[in-house]
Amino acid sequence: MRRIFLSAVLILFIVSTASLSIADSTLLYATPAAAGMGGAFGSIADDNSAIIINPAGMSAKKRYGAHIGYLYTNPDTESRVDFSAVDSHTSQVGVGVAYIRDYYRTPSFGVQRNTYVTAISMGTPGIFSAGINGRMDQFTQGLSGESQTLGYGIIFSPGLSFLNLSIAGLNLTRIKGTREQLPPRLIDAGISLQLQDVLTISFDGVKNLEISTGKNIDYHAGGEIVLVKQIVLRGGYAWMDTQNDKTYSAGIAWDAPRFTIAYTFVGDVIHKQNNVQLVSFTLYPF
Q1: What is residue 25's three-state secondary structure?
Q2: What is the largest CA-CA distance in the chain?
Q3: Nearest C-alpha neighbor of 170 from the set 124, 210, 141, 122
Q4: Number of domains composing the chain
Q5: Is residue 102 within 8 Å of 64, Cβ to Cβ?
Q6: Using one digit for the tens of pLDDT, what is the confidence trace for 67-93?
Q7: Full residue range of the structural domain in which residue 179 is found
């Protein structure tokens, strides 16, 4: 009987980790830019993904951005649509709001979730910035009820304009929710080198505080290069110890003065049939 139980647990574990699930990974929060760089985006966070990944990034530069994005996984047909807006242009305080609607699978059932996030940040671009966000998840299928958390982040340049360091805590403070409803607590530490607005290289380590075993850190590396000032090519790689998996990513974007269109493909090294595709449109009115 014990062997049957252990075998069932093992099968359940394999099924639950054999795909690129968006439920408990940084893919849920990623834009095509963040995913295209392998998830190594915490110290850059200069698009609307900053609202969740690292709210300090909203003050990384003065801007206004309205964003819509879509994510789809194959073959598990998990999906996500997101809308967000960031304003760090009109005042010293950067403000961001986001709505994410995603569908993901657990070993037992599918889950429909609506996520609402608000974030604020302050700082001096290129020197230091800090931010905080509040997140609420509401479940309409598979689970019921809601959860609430707070996250934090900082980005700073230690006397070198081309070097950024960061640390962010995603969902660190838990206000409300059950174990099944609450998103994972993650610590993201990152470093990036940006050379003359043409080449960027970045590295991140993400520690999952919900996992007590030794394999609770994911490692991310990525880069991007800007061609003719508007075409952006991205690539990245991730070693995901928490899921015993590895992924690679490739992305392209048209970064025009008033808008950006981006696409990224994320492939699974071990389970080759699995992949994730992301597409987004971001408008910069002024």
Answers
A1: coil
A2: 66
A3: 210
A4: 1
A5: no
A6: 999 999 988 789 999 999 999 988 889
A7: 2-283
